[in-house]
Amino acid sequence: IAVGCNFDFAQEDELAHADIVIDDLMELKGILPAVQR
Questions:
Q1: What's the pTM?
Q2: Which domain of life, per UniProt (predicted)?
Q3: Handedness of CA 7, 13, 36, 30 (dihedral sign)
C-alpha cells in the first residue's frame, strides 16, 4: 500500500500513485490498524 502525504512540497503526480493520501501524519494512527487486518 502506498500512502501519500499531502504536504506543501508534495507533487501531484506522486500523490496520484498513492492508494491513500493524508494531510497530517497523525492520520496514520487511524489508517495503519485498518491496513494491518
A1: 0.70
A2: Bacteria
A3: positive
Nearest-angstrom CA–CA distance, 22 and 9: 13
Give 1-35 pLDDT, tens digit per residue. Answer: 899 999 888 899 999 999 999 999 899 998 888 87
Residue type for 34, please? A
- E strands within 1-37? 3-5, 20-22
For residues 20 and 5, what is the distance between their CA atoms, to the nearest angstrom?
Answer: 9
Query: For 6, which DSSP code?
Result: -
Residues 14 and 31: beta-carbon distance below 8 Å:
no
